[in-house]
Amino acid sequence: MLKKNIILAGFMGTGKSTLGRLLAEKLDYHFIDTDSLIEDRIGQTIAELFQEQGEAAFRKLEESLAQELAQQQGLVISTGGGLVLNPNNVDALTQSGQIICLTATPVEILERVSTQKQIRPLLLEKDPLSKIKELLEQRLPVYSQFQQLSTTGKDPHELVTQLIELTCEA
Ligand code: S3P
Q1: Ligand 1: distance of its center to the CA of 26 in Å?
Q2: How many angstroms separate the alpha carbon of residue 1 from the centre of ligand 1?
Q3: DSSP per position, the chain
Q4: pTM
Q5: Predicted local distance difference test score (pLDDT) of residue 2
């Protein structure tokens, strides 16, 4: 049976990696986190890459990975928050499966990213909450084209059930 990919998009700290891993386990799909895979391949963290080569270098790696993953099946793909800003990535991934966009409130996003060890170079600002709001506003037209699932204040297992319902409906 064809197992189309399930792609989790959305802003940083919306739960893509946590839910992606749980969803893949539940469906017996292979789990891919695009940021982690890029880090493994280049032997550097995303933050180091941003610092040494700039954001554009990261976006190129993201694009070639999106094209590569779009050729495969049976994947749950948790994307970096900016991956779907590139229409080439969206086109390729849409052909391979279904994109669902996770959302959360700016305050919850800040709480989550502040407690994670992963450094988000785009949020290294004096006032990260304002930066989150600003980026969310900029990205809204892109994120809002996908089916949305709010993760604020919800239990991950309940969310996985909702994700399965959303992917079965499609
Ligand atoms: C980014 C999100 C990050 C990472 C990079 C850029 C973004 O991934 O790809 O720091 O542009 O939103 P997460 O969404 O997993 O934090």
Answers
A1: 25
A2: 33
A3: ----EEEEEESTTSSHHHHHHHHHHHHTPEEEEHHHHHHHHHTS-HHHHHHHH-HHHHHHHHHHHHHHHTT--SEEEEPPTTGGGSHHHHHHHHHHEEEEEEE--HHHHHHHHHHSSS--GGG-SSSHHHHHHHHHHHHHHHHTTSEEEE-TT--HHHHHHHHHHHHHH-
A4: 0.97
A5: 77
